Recover the amino acids of this structure.
């Protein structure tokens, strides 16, 4: 039987994002497996986690945890105290950082290693913080969980991490949430976005330089410039620091349309992703690539890159491009000119997405928790 674990969900941001979807999906699946789990979280999330794991123990942390600096300081002393209080045998730190004196085994999730392999894509202070956190986690954690073999290999190569202490646990996708949309659902999101039936190419993600949105914008412009009915480009998401996006948007010819809806409700994402001609995600590198998997689950024709983990997720069910604008343009042109290939890719993507479940991820996490105890 797996040991009692305390999962620290205090780093989950208000907008949920990738970290929120990871923690939510994992906790729901752990609860379904009757795992012995307690969770500590920000006060605003306590009711949410109580619903996700009705038989689990939920501890609301102090109000100060909304401040990032205060949360990191609390993690060093407050988190081990909570672990003692709930009698946890293992602490799971799901977002890089780990207490230095936890008093019990710690399993830490390291989501990606691009802070080392692509340092120029991050602000200096942010990059330095995460590089230090990853080095500390790789050294001090009893075990590390990573979402792909590519991330495991990068940690071994770049941080000299011990490969025998790293467990791969692929993310899952909630197929009740992310599914191919009906025509009516697709029509509603089109109207909500103000497209009035105009076809579109979709991007969903944080506006960070590694997501490569400026090259996508320029590649799209080149791909559709001569089209009599050019599809719009909808770039949804936010919370990033890529200043070049504004310059790229400013270069878009007046006859082409860029739509920037900001954050979309999770309930709108299946129709948004599944209703697109193509979902484009030309990232410079991902630790996993959850937006790609979610688009696949919605039956979308996905265009991404060969970088790091993305081929592990997409396999032969997605189209690939190099990340430069000219390559993106050529790949988009080919997909837009071939409806049959888009349909084939969408069907293959949905079928492949069924292989990625939160139950499978939770089982891999439970195995890692058990190894952490036996490693001591």
């Amino acid at each position: 039987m797996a040991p009692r674990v305390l999962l620290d969900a205090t780093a989950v941001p208000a907008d949920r994002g990738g970290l929120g979807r990871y923690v939510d999906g994992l906790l729901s699946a752990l609860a379904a497996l009757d795992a012995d789990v307690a969770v500590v979280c920000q006060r605003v999330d306590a009711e949410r986690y109580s619903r996700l794991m009705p038989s689990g123990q939920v501890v609301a942390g102090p109000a100060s945890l909304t401040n990032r600096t205060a949360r990191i300081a609390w993690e060093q002393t407050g988190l081990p105290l909570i672990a003692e209080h709930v009698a946890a045998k293992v602490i799971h730190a799901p977002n890089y950082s780990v207490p230095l004196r936890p008093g019990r085994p710690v399993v830490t999730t390291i989501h990606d290693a691009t802070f080392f392999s692509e340092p120029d894509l991050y602000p200096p202070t942010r990059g330095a913080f995460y590089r230090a956190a990853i080095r500390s986690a790789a050294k001090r954690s009893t075990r590390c969980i990573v979402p792909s073999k590519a991330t495991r290999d990068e940690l071994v190569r770049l941080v000299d991490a011990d490969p025998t202490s790293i467990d791969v646990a692929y993310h899952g996708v909630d197929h009740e949430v992310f599914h191919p949309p009906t025509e009516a659902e697709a029509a509603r999101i089109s109207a909500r976005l103000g497209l009035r039936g105009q076809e579109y190419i979709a991007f969903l993600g944080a506006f960070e330089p590694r997501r490569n949105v400026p090259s996508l914008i320029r590649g799209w412009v080149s791909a559709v410039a001569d089209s009599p009915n050019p599809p719009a480009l909808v770039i949804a998401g936010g919370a990033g620091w890529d200043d070049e996006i504004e310059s790229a948007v400013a270069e878009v010819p007046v006859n082409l349309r860029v739509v920037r809806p900001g954050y979309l409700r999770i309930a709108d994402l299946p129709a948004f992703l599944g209703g697109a001609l193509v979902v484009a995600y030309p990232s410079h590198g991902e630790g996993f690539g959850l937006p790609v998997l979610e688009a696949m689950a919605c039956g979308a024709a996905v265009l991404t890159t060969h970088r790091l983990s993305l081929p592990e997720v997409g396999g032969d069910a997605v189209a690939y491009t190099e990340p430069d604008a000219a390559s993106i343009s050529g790949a988009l042109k080919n997909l837009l000119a071939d409806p049959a290939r888009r349909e084939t890719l969408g069907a293959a993507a949905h079928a492949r997405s069924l292989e990625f479940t939160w139950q499978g991820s939770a089982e891999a996490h439970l195995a890692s928790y058990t190894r952490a105890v036996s490693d001591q």
The chain has two domains: 5-172+357-375, 183-353. The chain has 15 helices and 13 strands.
